[in-house]
Amino acid sequence: GRGVLSRAMAALGAYRCIECNGEATELYRDYRRGVLRISICKSCQKPVDKYIEYDPVIILINAVLCKAQAYRHILFNTKINIHGKLCVFCLLCEAYLRWLQLQDSSQNTDPDDLIRYAKEWDFYRMFGIASLEQTSFFIGIFITLWWMTPEMMKRKSDFILLLKALLLSTYGKLLLIPAVIWEHDYTPLCLAFIKVFVLISNSQAIRVTLNLNRILPWFAIFFGLILENGVVCLFQKIGWDV
């Protein structure tokens, strides 16, 4: 139950105070019979993690608002392993949107099987392009952070945690689904807002994971965008629609 999970995570030193990012040995103490007492951080004298009492919907709302406390709770004090599936689903959403825009620009309505197979290939191609663009974006971030803060990127676990944080922080791409369903004249503006929101989430994820100031994460994201746009330009030179 909760007690076993708490002891296991404490043994790994996985707990963090969501207020000051200080290490903690436990999130709460179980006095049995349903009586729990939230641990107090020794550094800031505040509850280590108030979100353990909150409903998941409240936590999600706080994460959408990009609150650092909610990000620390999700990244350090929970065992969420959906980052891989979430990444694939977000890429599928992005690939579908690009594929839909490509079909809208095509005037060919021939129902021949060859045309249908070509359209299916276009979807797989868009998925591959979206995957390569996101990979190049992450590589740009990792290179910049490794160059600017090598002392924070020494261990393999640091890279894995940062990658997990970046993958989870791309959840904003799920908003592409309603943007497609509720298509209207302002769809390009909505897509721009979604892109900005995802970048803000990425910045907050980097800041929380490595305990950095607000400037360095944006610096890393800027270089990530440069590398991503470089990949886009390469595809365009090849003659692919992106």
From TrEMBL:
Record membrane topology: Multi-pass membrane protein
Localisation: Endoplasmic reticulum membrane
Any one of the GO CC terms: cortical endoplasmic reticulum
Keywords: Endoplasmic reticulum, Lipid metabolism, Lipid transport, Membrane, Transmembrane, Transmembrane helix, Transport
Transmembrane regions listed in the UniProt entry: 123-147, 159-180, 215-238
One Pfam family of this chain: Arv1
Keyword presence, Lyase: no
InterPro entries documented for this protein: Arv1
One example of a Gene Ontology biological process annotation: sterol metabolic process
Record function comment: Mediator of sterol homeostasis involved in sterol uptake, trafficking and distribution into membranes.
Family classification: Belongs to the ARV1 family.
Protein name per Swiss-Prot or TrEMBL: Protein ARV
Protein source organism: Ptilonorhynchus violaceus
Lineage: Eukaryota, Metazoa, Chordata, Craniata, Vertebrata
